[in-house]
Each structure stands twice: as C-alpha cells, then as structure tokens.
Design brief:
- This protein is 31% helix and 13% strand.
- The chain is built from 2 helices and 6 strands; from the N terminus they run H-H-E-E-E-E-E-E.
- Strand 1 and strand 2 form a beta hairpin.
- Helix 1 runs antiparallel to helix 2.
- It starts with a helix and ends in an 8-residue tail after the last strand.
C-alpha cells in the first residue's frame, strides 16, 4: 500500500486526461503491489521461523541447522588456577590465585574466544 502511494506521487507528472498514461498507471498499480505483498509475506514467514540458540545465543533458521552450525564451549569460563595437566597461567607477583581466568574445557583465556566444539543449534523451544 505504501508502494502505491509513492508510485502515485512519482507519476503525478502524468497528464490525468491522457488515457494512455492512466492505463499505464492502472497496470503498474495492480501488478506491483501483489509482488510486494508476496515478498513481505515471505519475509515475515521466514523471520517468524528464526530461533535463538541456548548455547551460542545467536539466531538461526531451524531448516538450515547442521552439525557444524553452532560453535560453543561445553564448560564454563572459570576463575582459578589451571589443573596440573593444563598449562599454567602466568600470574604476576601481586595477583591473587583466582586471577587466572579461562574456559575449563579448552583452556582459552579470552572470555570472547570462539567455541571449541561444534554441533547443532539448540532452541529454547526444544525440550
């Protein structure tokens, strides 16, 4: 509907008494909005299908969800010394022992580090 108004404004230079111009205007106003409405409906339908992933918090389309769609850390970002099997975090002389922060699953020391595992997205709607 907005498109029709802008189209009429765009074509206001036409001579209203010119029948050829009026026919052209009628043809454009009857065919174009149908296509625009279909596109809006398709866009709205696809937007309604998007879900939010519990793991990575990104939005995803369930129809294109694959085994490598979601990148996440299966463990928490912790604040403690690394285990003996893992590399030690270098603490400064005045740092408390809990100054070492890392993902417990992979040892990544940045809170925004890319996930170390990939899998399907899991929606909040999934049980």
């Amino acid at each position: 509907m907005n498109w029709q108004i802008s189209k009429l404004t765009h074509t206001e230079y036409l001579n209203v008494n010119d029948k050829l111009s009026l026919l052209k205007l009628e043809e454009e106003s009857t065919t174009q909005p149908i296509t625009a409405m279909e596109t809006e409906a398709e866009t709205e339908a696809s937007a309604n299908n998007f879900k939010t992933c519990k793991r990575c918090k990104s939005t995803f389309d369930p129809f294109s969800n694959s085994s490598s769609s979601c990148r996440f850390h299966p463990s928490f970002f912790v604040s403690r010394r690394h285990d003996d099997q893992k590399r030690y975090y270098e603490l400064g002389p005045d740092d408390p022992p809990y100054a070492a922060k890392f993902y417990d699953c992979c040892g990544a020391e940045e809170s925004e580090a890319a996930g170390c595992m990939t899998s399907f997205h899991i929606s909040y709607d999934d049980i």
